[in-house]
Amino acid sequence: MRRNTDYGVYLVTDRTLCRGRALADVVAAAVAGGVTVVQLREKHVDTREFVELARALKGLLAPRDVPLLINDRVDVALACGADGVHVGQGDMHPADVRALLGHTALVGLSVETMEQVREAEALDVDYLGVSPVFATSTKTDTAPPWGLDGLARLRVATECTLVAIGGIGAANAEQVLRAGADGLAVVSALCAADDPQRAAEELRGAVRSVRGW
Description:
Elements: E1 9-12, H1 23-33, E2 37-40, H2 47-61, E3 68-71, H3 74-80, E4 84-87, H4 94-101, E5 106-111, H5 114-120, E6 127-130, H6 147-157, E7 162-165, H7 173-178, E8 183-186, H8 188-191, H9 196-211
Parallel strand pairs: 1-2, 1-8, 2-3, 3-4, 4-5, 5-6, 6-7, 7-8
């Protein structure tokens, strides 16, 4: 049975933004503050190091019942026993990801256009990563931003779970949620924060405010 997942505060890791701090320490602090999902994203390490990092985070997150997703790499997810994988439009097809990981895994898919959203509705994915909502320096190879209006139109067009990413922080979190996002995926707002726990608490507060609990 697939787990019922709260995507409210979704941390996407970037070690280059952690200001010299150990990734595990930043993740642990963010989870203590209310992060509900962690995606390990590593673009510039070899496979062995990626697997070692993933296993370390899995060991940290599993006792806290926080799912670990791996960006792009199904092989790494299988090796470390991750809870799922997030893929982009140019990565392994979600149907193949599902076939390899099984029906209980979490599978997320990035969408940058309404056409991609329509195509995704026929796929067995758990959520759509709406990318980017606002322009961001942490990922430059993206389509034009959706903006709040675009996110609102997307919310009307689909019943899929929507996780917004791109330029999101405490200052605009409530706006993004009220426009229709089910969750907030953040990178620099947590990885580069002076106090990742406090930053996560602020984001979690925005989620509670919009959800009414």
